[in-house]
Amino acid sequence: MSCGGVYEKDYFYQLADEYGIMIWQDFMFACSLLSNGYRADIFYDRYPTNIEFLKNVQDEVVYQVGRLNHHPSIVIWSGNNENELIIRYWPFSTNVDRVIHEADYRLLYVFLIRAIVQQLDQSRPFIASSPSNGVESEQDENYIAQNPNDSKYGDVHYYNYTVDSWNPSVYPIARFLSETGVQSLPSLESWLQVTNDSAEWNYSSRLMLHRQHHPDGMEQML
């Protein structure tokens, strides 16, 4: 379950248990420090680490782990999505800024969330972030690897909109490809649920461009 801001309802996990669907369960933290990767006019600062916020996170994690840890469909807990990757490559203006951000990162995901999960559920692995080098990051790099997306360790995220996606050789040979994908346009049947105006079915229409949130998304698909 990706970190889209919502922990799914119990019924979702019950169905996953019944049908043998394995779930990678993120906690709801993602893409902190990210700006021009999605929209250049929005800056996502790091998550705070004041006492009030940490207490709120503690309550959230305790509740969700207690609610979900009996579901066999959940195979791993992940503290966040891509924050280790971003903090490693973020161009901090000073070394002091980097030290502060890295300390806050470890406080939130390692010393708080990881500690709670390991106390409440010792039956599953926990990784601080995805992608990460897994145990390699923990033991040798203090949870912030030099290359968190290294295909030799842990899990990998892969996006490339310029290659032939039908060619299997373009994909990384990783231990686990935990996130990948390409865009596609909706079917006509889907569009008809939104509008009957055939002018809006064109890829360059006002509505189509309004619904496109990925930079250069149309050009990359064409």
Automatic annotation (TrEMBL):
Coiled coil: none annotated. GO terms for biological process: carbohydrate metabolic process; glycoprotein catabolic process. Residues 10-126 form the Glycoside hydrolase family 2 catalytic domain. The keyword rRNA processing does not apply. One of its GO terms (molecular function) is beta-mannosidase activity. Transmembrane segments: none annotated. Gene3D superfamilies: Glycosidases. InterPro entries: Beta-mannosidase_GH2, GH, Glyco_hydro_2_cat. Keywords: Glycosidase, Hydrolase. Pfam families: Glyco_hydro_2_C. This is Glycoside hydrolase family 2 catalytic domain-containing protein. It comes from Didymodactylos carnosus. The lineage of its organism: Eukaryota, Metazoa, Spiralia, Gnathifera, Rotifera.
